[in-house]
Amino acid sequence: MVITGVALLVVAIVVVALAPRGLTRWAWTIDRPRTALVAWSAAVVVGVLGFIGGITLVVLSGRPSDDPFGVADSPTHGVHLVVAVAAVVAFVIAVRVRPGAEHAAVREAIHSGVAPRRLVDGTIVAVVEADHALACAVPGRSGGVLLSTGLTARLDEDELDAVVAHESAHLRGRHASVVAVAESIERTVPWVPGARAMARSSRVLVEFAADDAAARRVGADALARAVRAADPDSALSAVRIARLQRR
Ligand SMILES: [Zn+2]
Q: Domain of 107?
């Protein structure tokens, strides 16, 4: 039992130490963003379960199976057990995803009825008056896609379809939750190597994944033109356009 526990701990440490190196340095993640996102999730699951399972097996080794925590010997053992379970529950609560205030504001904008709306493949697309170029996806039953007139004025129809397809892909892929979980883990355990790398990497990978989904629906060319028109100066846009042109 001790050997299995130690082996689990070693596996967890190796995965938590090596996953961020591999997943931030390997160029394949740019071409296979969905695989990379799954690999990040797998690393988190293996890391967390490995640590909990490994420590449990080491602590319980040699204990009688009918009372492994020795609660019958001393009530303080029971208290320790409750504290340990409470610590795990506190961690889970700390990691839970909370929607931001800006999400409520965007939801309000989508449903206020002020913005002209249409339904595209079952998703509400609303357009608000604003000079700057804006496109965002708000998840949830009352969510949808919000665009600004500053963006719609700059884009041709096929480019606009590409932007809507990109934002809809964020909704279908539950990308907001993927990023929120990664950012929540970063806030909860910032000292774990790779927690920050995972949050940063996830934010970029979901953009690539949404681009791939949108390119399959409306074509990479229209999406590349839309990205260039909407956000011409950012480094991320340059990488996104280069990826789309390689397709
Ligand atoms: Zn996006």
A: 101-246
Domain boundary among 95, 129, 145: 95
Order of strands across the sheet that contains 123-128: 117-120, 123-128, 144-148, 135-138
Q: Which residue has the tokens 């963006």?
A: 151
The predicted model gives 208-217 an average pLDDT of: 97
Q: What's the 167 CA to ligand 1 centre distance in angstroms?
A: 6
**Number of compact structural domains in the chain:** 2
Within this chain, do residues 122 and 41 fall inside the same structural domain, yes or no? no
Are residue 144 and residue 234 in the same domain, yes or no?
yes
Give residue 94 CA to ligand 1 midpoint distance, Å.
Answer: 26
Find the 229 Cα to ligand 1 centroid distance in Å: 14
**Contact residues for 172 (Cβ-Cβ < 8 A; gap 6+):** 213
The sign one gets for the Cα dihedral 71, 76, 77, 78 is: positive
Digit-coded pLDDT (tens) for 122-160: 888 999 888 989 999 988 877 889 999 999 999 999 999
